[in-house]
Specification:
Order of helices and strands: HHH
Structural class: mainly alpha
Strand content: under 5%
Shape: elongated
């Protein structure tokens, strides 16, 4: 479950990076193709377009982060609630798992 969430996040992050790089490359291409001394208004327009696109990408990334955070909390909260409402059994289960793992590790060394 955690790996799937991590993979989805990585894909979406990579997509946003590509969009950002494309927007910057397009702006650079436009700036190289115009004569800056004669086209100050056009330069301003290109820069405003880049700024607008960067703000859009930032907002998209923020929204994606909020979705991922909400999904994480939705999956973790039930476990936290069980631990809070039943602390002693939770500790005993954790100790039991630790003992079991310790036994398996020590058996694997022999």
């Amino acid at each position: 479950m955690s790996e799937k969430m991590k993979d989805t996040t990585t894909v979406k992050t990579d997509h946003l990076k590509v969009q950002t790089a494309d927007a910057l490359e397009e702006a650079a291409r436009k700036l190289r193709s115009i004569d800056i001394s004669e086209k100050a208004d056009e330069v301003k327009k290109i820069l405003q377009d880049v700024e607008s696109r960067m703000n859009h990408f930032r907002d998209e990334a923020g929204a994606e982060f909020e979705k991922i955070e909400a999904e994480y909390h939705k999956k973790v909260e039930p476990v936290e609630n069980i631990i809070i409402t039943h602390p002693i059994p939770s500790v005993l289960i954790a100790v039991g798992i630790g003992v079991l793992l310790g036994a398996l590790i020590s058996r694997g060394r022999d």
